[in-house]
Amino acid sequence: METKIATDRLRVSFGRETVLKDVTIKVQKNTITGFMGPSGSGKSTLISVVNRMIDFENNVRIEGDARIDGTSILDGSINPIELRRRVGTVFAVPIPLPRSIFENIAYGPKLKGTTDRTTLYSIAEDCLKKAFLWDEVKDRLGTSAMKLSGGQQQRLCLARTLALKPEIILLDEPCSGLDPISTAKIEDALSELKSEYTIILVSNNTKQIARISDFSAFFYLGELIEYDTTDKVFTAPAERQTEDYIQGKFG
Ligand SMILES: Nc1ncnc2c1ncn2[C@@H]1O[C@H](COP(=O)(O)OP(=O)(O)OP(=O)(O)O)[C@@H](O)[C@H]1O
Ligand SMILES: [Mg+2]
To answer: pLDDT confidence of 92, banded at 50, 70, 90?
Structure first.
């Protein structure tokens, strides 16, 4: 096992409220790590440290450290734009560009300087296949992405993220608004993608985390309560709070 992302006593406060309390976690390379916990437990905040979206927040204080491949991503030496290229993020609500399916995927590679149409097409095909969307859209790549269903749009957003060749993919409740079939396709896609990427999946669906993640982390009120293999967390949790949460007693 190789650590890809590590935090060391990471503490995040908004004004006087501390929302992540000394979180120390090591996320292993080429695995899916599930983040679960009730609303407000700090899952999205932790994600926003890893992709440095937290830079856009006002009145925030970050203490402790966060590292990718052993290098701090908080100490000012790292370029946040470069970092966000290495860390792709998929959010709960898919927001495609109001362009064609093809253009949604080609947009990123074009910005990075790829202009050859054949290359762009093969990138689109590859990424759409990896996102389990290809079969549904291969005959209409030129139509507007806005005409896709919500579940298809979410898979398009995953494909668009893949086209930027990140090392890490963060997904913050990517299936919360999706039908079971699209949800299953996203899960299948992630299970295959983990051989190439390090994936963090935030989900309010504990069954989903149990199904597809290798490691599971349970957060409560800004603290990392438990972190272990998914097997261990779901069959023999060390903490009572974890057990109660998994059994649906709160959250
Ligand atoms: N920009 C902000 N300014 C002030 N407080 C914030 C900000 N962002 C998050 N918080 C607070 O930080 C705490 C953790 O929020 P966060 O969004 O990380 O939780 P979460 O676990 O992702 O919850 P959910 O499951 O509802 O998405 C909450 O109390 C929230 O109100
Ligand atoms: Mg959240």
So the answer is: very high
Domains of the chain (ranges; CATH) run: 3-94+167-246 (3.40.50.300)
Nearest to 250 by CA among 36, 23, 19: 36
For the purposes of burial, counting CB atoms within 10 Å of the CB of 16, is it exposed (0-12), middle (13-18) or buried (19 or more)?
Answer: exposed
Q: Whose CA is nearest to atom 3 of ligand 1?
A: 14
Across-strand partners of 93? none
Establish whether residue 43 lines the binding site of ligand 1, counting it when its CB lies within 6 angstroms of any ligand atom. yes
pTM beyond 0.90: the answer is yes
217-230: per-residue pLDDT in tens?
A: 999 999 999 999 99
214: which residues sit within 8 A by CB, 6+ positions away? 28, 31, 32, 33, 194, 229, 230
Q: Is the CB of 42 under 6 A from ligand 1?
A: yes
Query: pLDDT band at 251, cuts 50/70/90?
Result: low
Q: Give exposure, 228-237, as e/b (b: 16+ Cβ within 10 Å).
A: bebeebbeeb
Q: Which two tokens stand for residue 50?
A: 């890893």
Are the beta carbons of 47 and 201 closer than 8 angstroms? no
Which residue's alpha carbon is nearest to atom 27 within ligand 1?
39
| Ligand 1 center to 26 CA (angstroms) | 22
- Max Cα-Cα span within the chain: 56
